[in-house]
């Protein structure tokens, strides 16, 4: 294994650990209520990244962390954590919450520059957008 592949593997592992911690933090913040969680995410700003990071790596890290997390993470938890992690690493991510009436269903996903990055691309057409954070 080359040194660059080892560095890349370590970087992805660190992203996954960050995402796992984010999943745990979400569970703690959820106890305070959705309005506090919503307010926190609304105030969260994009950090300047030291070097560009592919948003696909960060979304992958959230998915990987969900495999190892102690509870099943649903779409809101996954999307809040992905939004936090992307913004933390300099990617301008937006959490989108939507619903449809028949059959009733709600869903949350993450967009970067108007493109869904952590879920199916057709969701903006299937769901009525309730909020963008």
Please specify the SSE layout and strand pairing.
Elements: H1 3-30, H2 34-43, H3 55-68, H4 75-88, E1 93-100, E2 105-112, E3 115-116, H5 123-126, E4 128-132
Antiparallel strand pairs: 1-2, 1-4, 2-3
Write the H/E string, N to C: HHHHEEEHE
Taking the alpha carbons of the first and last residues, their distance comes to 41 Å
Q: Averaged pLDDT, please?
A: 89
Major sheet attributes: 4 strands, antiparallel
Strand content: 15-25%
What form results from the Cα inertia axes? globular
Number of helices: 5
Strand order of the largest sheet: 3-2-1-4
Strand tally is 4
User: Structural class per helix/strand content?
Assistant: alpha+beta
Radius of gyration: 15 Å
Low-confidence stretches: none
Measured as a percent range, the helix fraction is 40-55%
Counted up, domains total: 1
What does this structure look like?
This protein is of the alpha+beta class and 133 residues long. It has one domain (3-132). The protein has five helices and four strands, in the order ααααβββαβ. The chain has a four-stranded antiparallel sheet. β1 and β2 form a beta hairpin. α1 (3-30) crosses α4 and α3 crosses α4. The longest helix is centred in the N-terminal third of the chain and has 28 residues, at 3-30. The model has no long low-confidence stretch (mean pLDDT 89).
């Amino acid at each position: 294994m080359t040194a660059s592949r080892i560095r890349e593997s370590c970087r992805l592992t660190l992203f996954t650990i960050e995402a796992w911690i984010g999943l745990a933090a979400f569970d703690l913040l959820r106890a305070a209520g959705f309005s506090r969680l919503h307010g926190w995410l609304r105030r969260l700003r994009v950090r300047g990244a030291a070097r560009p990071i592919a948003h696909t790596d960060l979304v992958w890290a959230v998915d990987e962390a969900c495999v190892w997390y102690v509870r099943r993470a649903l779409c809101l938890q996954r999307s809040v954590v992905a939004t936090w992690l992307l913004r933390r690493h300099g990617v301008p991510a937006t959490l989108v919450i939507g619903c449809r009436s028949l059959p009733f269903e709600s869903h949350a996903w993450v967009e970067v520059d108007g493109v869904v990055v952590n879920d199916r691309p057709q969701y903006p057409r299937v769901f009525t957008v309730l909020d963008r954070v």
